[in-house]
Design a protein that fits this description.
Number of strands: 5
CATH class: Alpha Beta
Shape: globular
Distance between the termini: 24 Å
CATH architecture: 3-Layer(aba) Sandwich
Helix content: 25-40%
Order of helices and strands: HEHEHEHEHE
Strand content: 15-25%
Radius of gyration: 13 Å
Length: 119
């Protein structure tokens, strides 16, 4: 929260709107990658680094073209927040919530892998 306050960014408290769901399952840390068992239960476009996008600009374009973003890593999450896109965070059991956006915290738009039921 202090990072957002430092930059004067308000909490948007956004809700899911539209049908273009973008799922970004990759993460810098292997333990944070969204498992295929969860991806199989989700509807939306799965975009992977290296095949669907390779640059920061391409990632921003994907996020801006979506209505809703599901991710497990902090970079796409914070880009979704800055692009004013509603988002949902999936993270491993025992993972920290230090990187969550104010909106995700305010709306409860997050779940651990084992608790996940649907978005």
């Amino acid at each position: 929260m202090p990072v957002y306050e430092a930059y004067g960014l308000p909490s948007l408290v956004l809700e899911r709107k539209g049908n273009k769901v973008l799922i970004l399952p990759d993460a810098r840390l292997t333990k944070r990658i969204i498992p295929s068992s969860i991806l199989d239960r989700m509807e939306g476009r799965v975009a992977r680094f290296g095949s669907d996008y390779t640059t920061f600009e391409q990632l921003i374009d994907l996020i801006q073209a979506s209505d809703y973003v599901v991710t497990s890593d902090s970079l796409p999450l914070h880009l979704a927040y800055l692009c004013r896109k509603p988002h949902f965070i999936l993270y491993p059991d025992g993972g920290k919530q230090d990187f969550f956006t104010p909106d995700a915290l305010a709306t409860g738009s997050f779940s651990t892998f084992s608790q996940f039921s649907h978005v």
